[in-house]
Design goal:
Length: 189
């Protein structure tokens, strides 16, 4: 099935920040590129400063609540690390047009695919390079299972309904349940 396509002729106008509207198109492009590079650099710097303390906080929260740090990180970390994608998707969704809803869902699907694939590849590289013991079978199986479920749903479903959204939201606790089941019932590490 085909994904919904944008109507190029009736798309939204590009929005230029007010402080750049008086400049020529060439100057606007230079300023927008410079501003985006500066903002990405500042964002990267903030991530470098706050990521290690955030990991420590999540680990300590798990210890104090006597909950596995995996479960604490699995529930809380995605909201913090994907806040920009969630906000962008929400902003697009509020416009309630087909093109904007497609952009909203594409933003979320793209972020999920990138996060799961890229971060998992880095994780596997670290396990291999550092010679770490493999103790993540349950977590890996649950994430792969949920990725397949969401992927099949995204490919086969042309229109997203309330039922689809509830099903997708149910995959989040389902993933946690699969981890628990694999560790406690099947005895996987």
């Amino acid at each position: 099935k085909d994904l919904p396509k944008y109507d190029e002729d009736h798309g939204e106008e590009e929005q230029m920040p007010e402080d750049l509207a008086h400049l020529s198109p060439r100057q606007q492009m230079c300023r927008v590129i410079w501003r985006s590079l500066w903002m990405m650099g500042a964002g990267t710097f903030l991530v470098l400063i706050f990521s290690d303390p955030m990991v420590d906080c999540l680990g300590e929260l798990g210890k104090r609540l006597d909950i596995s740090p995996f479960y604490v990180s699995f529930v809380l970390a995605p909201f913090a690390s994907n806040a920009s994608e969630l906000l962008a998707a929400y902003t697009y969704a509020c416009k309630k047009t087909e093109a904007n809803m497609t952009t909203s869902l594409s933003t979320l699907l793209g972020a999920a695919c990138m996060n799961n694939t890229f971060v998992f590849a880095i994780f596997l590289a670290l396990v291999y390079k550092q010679g770490l013991a493999w103790q993540f079978t349950a977590e890996t199986l649950s994430m792969i299972l949920i990725q397949w479920i969401i992927g099949i749903l995204a490919i086969t479903s042309k229109t997203q309904t309330v039922f689809t959204s509830v099903f997708i939201l149910a995959c989040y606790p389902l993933c946690l349940f699969v981890v628990w089941f694999c560790e406690n019932i099947l005895g996987l590490d």
